[in-house]
Structure formats: C-alpha cells, structure tokens
C-alpha cells in the first residue's frame, strides 16, 4: 500500500513515524473542558456542546491527523532531493526557503519540503504568490491539507478544484492567495 501511494518507506519506518507522532500528542483521553472556565463550560453546554470524555468505543479523531502527518513527512523532499528536482544548487533551495518561495520545516535531520509544491517540471506555478499569503502560524499539515482540498471558490472546467489543481491548470494564483490568507481564521 505504501509503495502504491508512492511513499518510499518500509512499513517498519512508516510505523516509526506514526509512533513519533503519537508520542507528541496530548494525553490519550484528554478532558475537553479542562482549559475552560466554569462560565465557558456552562455556556457551551447550554448550546448543546458535549464536553464529556471520549468513550472507549468512539473513534479518536487524532488518528487521521497522525496518519496524515506521517505521510506528509515521508513524502517530503530533502534539500538535496529538491535541488535535484529543480536542477539547482542546494544553497539556492535554502535561499528559496528563507525567502518564502518554498515551504518547508526543519526537523532533526534537516529541512523537509512538502512534495505538493513540486511538479514534474519544477515548482508549482504561482507558489511564491500563495506562500506569501499563508499566515506564518499555520503548520505544514494545515497548508498541505488546504492545497489538496477542493475549494468552492476555485473551478477547473465544470468542477470545483483544489488549489494545487487550480494552479496546475493555469489558474490565477492571487485567488488561491486570498483563500490561503484566511487559513486559521474562525469559520
């Protein structure tokens, strides 16, 4: 399954990524009301919000995020891989990261660059415009999810499109940038 998805990782390595992500999570059965005042708990309960602990039989919503984070990490390129894909020197890749023209994060092994921003011919068209609008506090997983999720405001032909697909089809990056600027805002 991992190979079919284009992930160059062994099942053992993938499970190591998952275990690392799980270790970073909050307690296994967090108390949703723990960080709320009495007044806030009462107000939320009055409007029908359930603040009780998740039961043992309920699916844990964090599992999907852990899997997505593991895939994002494993599919990301290193600086040398990105340099090879772009036909440039590794120092140019680091400059592009510093300038906000490539997205990436640093871990214990060095810079990791999410694969969604690359194409077979280089960098996603309009990427620099989009990245300039992404709020600095948005984590790589949120940006990756945004770039790959269908948006009602973007259409390719008769269908709604994900920002990545919109840009690949020649869509105006300013439209994606306006949407990206709203990442993290309340809905």
Automatic annotation (TrEMBL):
Name assigned to this protein: DNA-binding protein
């Amino acid at each position: 399954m991992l190979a079919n998805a284009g992930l160059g990782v062994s099942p053992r390595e993938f499970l190591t990524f998952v275990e690392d992500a799980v270790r970073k999570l909050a307690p296994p059965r967090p108390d949703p009301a723990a960080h709320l005042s009495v007044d806030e708990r009462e107000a939320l309960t009055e409007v029908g919000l359930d603040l009780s602990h998740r039961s043992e039989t309920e699916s844990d919503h964090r599992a999907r995020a852990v899997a997505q984070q593991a895939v994002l990490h494993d599919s990301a390129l290193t600086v040398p891989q990105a340099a090879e894909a772009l036909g440039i020197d590794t120092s140019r890749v680091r400059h592009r990261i510093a300038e906000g023209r490539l997205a990436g994060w640093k871990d214990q092994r060095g810079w990791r660059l999410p694969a969604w921003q690359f194409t077979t011919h280089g960098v996603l068209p309009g990427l620099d415009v989009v990245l300039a609008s992404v709020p600095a506090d948005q984590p790589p997983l949120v940006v990756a999810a945004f770039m790959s999720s269908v948006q009602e405001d973007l259409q390719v032909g008769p269908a709604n499109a994900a920002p990545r697909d919109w840009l690949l089809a020649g869509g105006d990056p300013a439209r994606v940038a306006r949407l990206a600027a709203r990442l993290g805002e309340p809905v």
